[in-house]
Amino acid sequence: MLRLPRGTQVFAEDNETLLVDLTEIGQRVVLCKGGDGGYGNLHYKSSTNRAPRRADKGWPGEERWVWLRLKLIADIGLVGLPNAGKSTFLSSNSNARPKIADYPFTTLHPGLGVVKVGDREFVMADIPGLIEGAHEGAGLGTRFLGHVERCRALLHLVDGTQDDVADAYRTVRAELRAYGGNLARKKELVALNKTDAMTPEDIEAKRTKLAKVSRKTVHVISAVAGHGVQPLLHELMKLVEKQRDAGANSGKEAA
Ligand SMILES: Nc1nc2c(ncn2[C@@H]2O[C@H](COP(=O)(O)OP(=O)(O)OP(=O)(O)O)[C@@H](O)[C@H]2O)c(=O)[nH]1
Ligand SMILES: [Mg+2]
To answer: What residues pack around ion ligand 2 (CB closer than 5 A)?
Structure first.
């Protein structure tokens, strides 16, 4: 028996045919039937033959090669360029304690955290930073874009201390689109992060720029100082509940 985390997909040897999608906790499937153990001498013992020489070997079990691909299931997926502050945001607002550092690709594996908003909660996934070409394997590549597939909605973080916030936003969006599937169609909230390290004029200029390129309301936050975070968490919670009601998630394609 093999125990696998929820969200694991099992593919056939061709690495294309999906055999099972383990989206539920406790789900069990038989991939290969076990063999036949055969019979030992004891089985042939009888009143007339007290020491039988006979034994039957049985047959081997089924064998097959499979590919396992883990695609995390979360309510909200954090996306953004490396160093945008994704892990910081997850760490300051959930029970998760991811590694945080001032260099790109600090996060090498996606991680999950539970975010509490009042008496409700949602699960947020910290995804390694995306860079141009990620959909073709650049940086940490496509492996992580797969995790985004299963999130109900996205929070796109943009580091406000970089010069070109519009370009940062576009780069990530282009990767989501290029990966295909329903990634680019997912609901997305946008936040300008690290505003504790910016002047009010700079914040305003970059917020305007980002709103223009994303055509969305831009949340102005500081993941470190906690500025603007509570209203954003409420928005995320509202969005998650709406998506849950609509059945958009989580293994299955959004309706
Ligand atoms: N001033 C300031 N710095 C921040 C803020 N949020 C994150 N940082 C800093 O930015 C750097 C990168 O933060 P991370 O949370 O590791 O960034 P990430 O997006 O997870 O990066 P990758 O895992 O490499 O994709 C760290 O030095 C953080 O301390 C913020 O709100 N304000
Ligand atoms: Mg990180």
So the answer is: 86-87, 106-107
